[in-house]
Amino acid sequence: MDLESYVAEILRDIRRRGIEAVKEYSKRFDGFDGKFLVGEEEFEEAERLIPEKDREIIQRIIERVREYHEKQLENDRIYIKNASLYGIIYKPIRRIGIYVPGGKPLPSTLIMVGVPARIAGVKEIAVTTPPKNDRVNPYVLYVARLLGIKEVYKLGGIQAIGAMAYGIGMKKVDKIFGPGNKFVNEAKRQVFGVVGIDCLAGPSEIAVIADETADKEYVLYDLLSQLEHGKDSKAWLLTTSRELAEFCRRDGIEVMLCESLEECAKKANEIAPEHLEIITEEPLKLLDLIENAGAIYLGPYTPVPAADYFLGVNHVLPTGGAAKFSGVLTVMDFMKRISLAYVSREEFLSERYLGIRLAEIEGMEMHKRSMEVRK
């Protein structure tokens, strides 16, 4: 059975049998047979388990992420024309779900999604994460507590996505965020339409544009850092330096020796990588040439791991070439744009002939009558 059919069958079963199916799959895939919702005692225990220094570090990282994302909030855009009001207004999504992977528990994922959600004004957040030895990673629980998230479920995989999307064992969410394995990704794809989703996150990617001024070890370890995410991760080096190219020829790294930095930029746009580092003598000169990248990090002191963890910029980024048509997660991904109009009688009566004629062209008689009956 292929992946699509396999996931579809499990989601159908979850819709049909509800919580019993969720429990059954949780026991089969995660070896968990207990209560899904994390209790207050476990939150308290998690905080005790984390060293004070680590608590301080997490708090500081959250502060930096909050500072960066607060500047992204957009104001309602309203204008007046002919005594009529028009505009776009923004409202937060009421309830979201966040999937936090469990293989390598990623508290940074919860920070990167939870902080902008709170800034946007999302009132309800449910977190699902696969348990390990019947427990949730204490760092994940500590981050949840700092963000005021009380709903954390010991639930992973396809069954977690189904539970959030269909409201099984919890209140249904409106949009699901967070990365996962191929089963989680496919489940998110299949429930899209029932709920919203952030993106379909694939394997991690990095491309580095570098010239002869770049430190060879900086470049090499930046490339290797993303390969650390898994065997499907991808790394490209685009360079004008033959010496750097030879130094970085390692398993998993695709090296492209280019005639010019402009050629490097062209190849980077074709790749459209999740992360793009530019480590050259004058990195800002290349910035205008880059059209396709999830994130651009300039200079030798902006490595991807720093961006992933403490700079404050978001690390939820498009992969697999999706940077050609989509971008980084922002506060506005947690908000809805709503069109607004409040039209004066004078403007309506003077301009309605436009709509009446278009209704005639399209053969929409009741549309036409709706405009004609108004006096």
Chain-averaged pLDDT: 97
Quick one: biggest sheet?
A: 5 strands, parallel
- Strand tally, please? 13
- Roughly what percent helix? 40-55%
| Beta-strand fraction estimate | 15-25%
The structural domain count equals: 3
Q: Give me the CATH fold name of the largest domain.
A: Rossmann fold
Distance between the termini: 63 Å
Protein name: Histidinol dehydrogenase
InterPro entries: Ald_DH/histidinol_DH, Histidinol_DH_CS, Hstdl_DH
Catalytic activity: L-histidinol + 2 NAD(+) + H2O = L-histidine + 2 NADH + 3 H(+)
Cofactor: Zn(2+)
Topology readout:
Elements: H1 3-17, H2 19-30, H3 40-49, H4 52-70, E1 77-81, E2 84-92, E3 95-99, H5 107-120, E4 124-129, H6 138-146, E5 151-154, H7 157-166, E6 175-177, H8 182-191, E7 196-197, E8 205-210, H9 216-227, E9 234-239, H10 242-247, E10 253-257, H11 261-271, E11 275-279, H12 284-287, E12 295-298, H13 304-309, E13 335-342, H14 345-362, H15 365-372
Parallel strand pairs: 3-4, 3-6, 4-5, 6-7, 8-9, 8-11, 9-10, 11-12
Antiparallel strand pairs: 1-2, 2-13
Helix pairs in contact: 1-2, 1-7, 1-8, 2-7, 3-6, 4-5, 5-6, 7-8, 14-15
